[in-house]
Amino acid sequence: MIDIRRADTRYRGGDRQAGIDTRHAFSFSGHYDPDNTGFGLLTAVNDERLEPGAGFGEHRHRDIEIVTWVVEGALEHRDSTGAVGTLRPGQVQSTGSGAGILHTERNAHTGPTRFLQMWLHPDGYGGPPRHDRADVTLPQDGGLVPVASGRGHAGAVALRQADAVLHAARLGEGDTAALPRAPFVYVHVVRGALRLGEEPLGEGDAARITGCRDLEVTGAEGGGEVLVWEMHAEPSYG
After folding, report:
1. Structural domain containing residue 179
2. How many whole angstroms from its chain centre is CA 8?
3. Cα-to-chain-centroid distance, residue 236
4. Is the pTM of this model over 0.90?
5. Is the dihedral of CA 61, 64, 65, 69 positive or negative?
6. Torsional class of 100: left (φ above 0), alpha (ψ -120 to 50), beta (otherwise)
7. Average pLDDT, the chain
8. In a shared domain, residues 85 and 47
9. Which residues contact 186 (CB under 8 A, 6 or more apart)?
10. Where is the Pirin N-terminal domain (predicted)?
11. What CATH number is attached to the domain comprising 67?
């Protein structure tokens, strides 16, 4: 089953007076829809836009895996593990909150910063928090590259979730990438234009695929960049 969600149907959040504009894929904060609380292991896919100097003050997370992918600009991250750094396009970051972590995020760029932040359930609870960051090189002619993984993929940041892998691809016009065969696959178009089979997908569009088999994404006119979650389970609360 393929469920297409267009960019303009996302919940609009943030605080635009404070320079924060957010588009939520699932129920989040003041937006609650009992029929849209997550997909597979994902509980949040937030498309964040920060004006220069804007950001999120110190706040706490626990028992959630957070993956951040910067689309443009620069995002400064500080957390209670002592990790401090600036994330830019071409890098990926994972933060395992464990029993609890405090962190702040701020636009460290002179222009707008846009990033995707994705939350998913871990496969265990408690324990020390963790921070990981890696540089990512995407081939220009397509092909999925693991960028965050609970399965030990080389070059990918680590996740405390053995049933999840995040892939990225940059597809030129006509280039194709085979989607993983998995019970749950989430496709998000970061920028540009793609096709899922014959279905056109534009920037910010997403597809939730249950029982994914023998599907491909293809670069449409001008090509595009895509993030693909491969998930082999749903959350376990035992």
Report:
1. 145-231
2. 18
3. 21
4. yes
5. negative
6. left
7. 95
8. yes
9. 39, 40, 42, 45, 206, 207, 208, 209, 228, 229, 231
10. 17-120
11. 2.60.120.10
